[in-house]
């Protein structure tokens, strides 16, 4: 001792053994009962401390002897002796509580996240990546509690191996689920096959090192590297939110590699909690965006249905039916069938945020058939280009046609043209509408407003719509990103499922 302390000191040690403590030949403490056989030995606690007075720790040399036996230990643990120190009681109290409080606070926060996402999953929607995130938070919370258990309550040293196995098992489960979460979030194919490969690689890490801390460290490192690779691939494929996911994984990997943080004590907890809480923020932002998107979709659906049931259009159609019934019952029947098809398609498409361009063209041709019957002049749509594998918001081209009939007096046979131009990243659609005896505009602009809102909802500002008059034609130009209907369904899986349910319900009501 360099000098005599002024107050009592705490001699603490952490080891896997039963022990007796002798200071200068005097027995000052016992932890369990060391013996010469397993039958006679009484196991001690892994953490043990004894208070020593200043008289026992006078300045000068002292002899400290530990009498140990560890017959209830296991050869799988390569390092049975962990710590020996002499400190002030307050310093020991602060150090022990610091190592316990932070993990428990983080574990409690993760449990609250588990409760939140359990409620959202049960009562709102069931995304696969939501369920995986919920399980990740639960596993991480349990792992933090298990890590803090040693300093919180202590245990007899034979149970240390059980705790190490529990830590390794939870770390392995977390390390497998983490990259699987990113696979599910970015909707990669062959999910089960990749999950199996990741699980095999993670388990292999447990055989490389004999030390349990190193096993956990390598498993978590593999999980972060795999997650980084998945995020890079998703970013190159321009997956939604892939840039934010990539930044989160890179920051977590950097935090994990900081030498100042010992993995088993602080590195894992800090890395995991930064990762999970960053993902939580991202998922909550997505949740709010989805709710806003659903509200906008409902608003657009109501707008479309109201526009399709305009009193002026219905009155003119019913008047025409009355006239045709006396003049040509066959034409009346054909007109009623076309009118019924129009309302049926509008009712079906109104609950979708996106439909195939071929379906939209079918809607437009049917509308022109109705207008041909009303005007007693043939109105046709000529299509130039390939409309396949293109998706657009419902009824935007139909709205353009309706505006054309509202603003012009077509008295002769009329030909409308639709030109489709494709490039590597986008598709251009131009509808050419003849300008004939234009009427004064008396509308409120709801048609154009509907078109702009629909494009914004589906394409998030990546689509444009402009109109201009070129000679005797009015050009309506759409520039859309080249996204197929399949890609859209994969991106908004739950929303499409809800739309299908609503459509089925609507069909059932119509049938009744």
From TrEMBL:
Domain Signal transduction histidine kinase internal region: 301-378
Superkingdom in the source lineage: Bacteria
Transmembrane segments: 100-123, 130-149, 161-184, 191-212, 218-235, 244-261, 267-284
Keywords: Kinase, Membrane, Transferase, Transmembrane, Transmembrane helix
InterPro entries membership: Bact_2-comp_sensor_kinase, Sig_transdc_His_kin_internal
A Pfam family reported for this protein in Swiss-Prot or TrEMBL: His_kinase
One Gene Ontology MF term: kinase activity
UniProt protein name: Histidine kinase
Organism name: Undibacterium hunanense
